[in-house]
Amino acid sequence: MTDSPTASRIVFIGAGNMASAIFGGMLEGGYPADAIVATSRSQETCDTIGQRYGIRTMQDNLAAVGEADVIVLAVKPQMMRDLCLSLRDSVQSRRPLIISVAAGLDAATLDAWLGGGLAVIRCMPNTPSLVGEGASGLYANDRVSDAERQLATDLLESVGLVEWVEEEAQIEAVTAISGSGPAYFFLFMESLEAAGTALGLSPESARRLALQTAFGAAKMARESEFDPAELRRRVTSPNGTTERAIHTFEEAGLAEIVSRATHACAERARELSSELGRN
User: Fold this and answer.
1) Is the separation of the CB atoms in 160 and 129 below 8 Å?
2) Rounded distance, CA 71 to CA 220, Å?
3) Are β-strands 70-73 and 97-100 bridged in parallel, bridged antiparallel, or unpaired?
4) Which of 171, 203, 207, 258 has a Cα at 20 to 30 A from 94?
5) What is the DSSP string of 181-244?
6) What's phi and psi for 261, nearest 5 deg?
7) Which pLDDT tens digit goes with each residue over 43-52?
8) 78-115 confidence digits (pLDDT tens)
9) Is the dihedral of CA 116, 119, 124, 128 positive or negative?
């Protein structure tokens, strides 16, 4: 296989689920396999990833970084400081674009650990990226060029929706809405399934109905010309069954519960960023 001369060489440090989702989406979108490298401390993981995706894999991070145009940092946040310090000299020599998908670490901290003066993009993807339906919030520091922004957009759009924020503090809001958001919907599905079982459905039927209803409602909302509030009004007949259920949610303070939950999530994201940055 020959190298692709026009494609940026992208190196993924870490080859876990999120990294695999991203480079898997890139490959499905036509990005050349010979321009992607992934690293892992496990030779077994390297072998598995290489066979499945047809990309080059390495255990040696320094060797991989030495030929990178873009580095995607995809290791656990607790491992990031030691990793960055180990890569600092090579990164300063090469000066690639840095993209981090690690939660809780701000761009300035990553830049400092890597020696400073780098173009850094912070990304908050979510787990539906694993099935190509992700939602990712991106923030770029002032050293990132327009071309690098577009490259990052193309990279993350391979697994779903991309939304740029202009202030890094807004990444915490992204975390609260889409980063942690899938768990909120899973909880609602779980509760709806349990309610269906309590009303006499079999657990299997209740689960299938709850999941398909969630999927259908999301698909309808995404494809409709109307916003969710209008769609809700259209399915809520006066004095009907849906209206009775909606009133019950409203009386229980659903909107306030959602607001409190998302604010708590954003606050915890800020706390984690502060804690990790002090390490």
Assistant:
1) yes
2) 37
3) parallel
4) 171
5) HHHHHHHHHHHHHHHHHHTT--HHHHHHHHHHHHHHHHHHHHH-SS-HHHHHHHH--TTSHHHH
6) -65, -45
7) 999 999 999 9
8) 999 999 999 999 999 999 999 999 988 999 999 999 99
9) negative
Examine the pLDDT at 189 and tell me if it is beyond 80: yes
Find out whether 107 and 75 touch, Cβ atoms under 8 Å. no
Q: Domains along the chain?
A: 10-170 (3.40.50.720), 181-268 (1.10.3730.10)
Tokens standing for 200?
A: 């006499």
**What is the distance between the alpha carbons of residues 149 and 131, in angstroms, rounded to a whole number?**
24
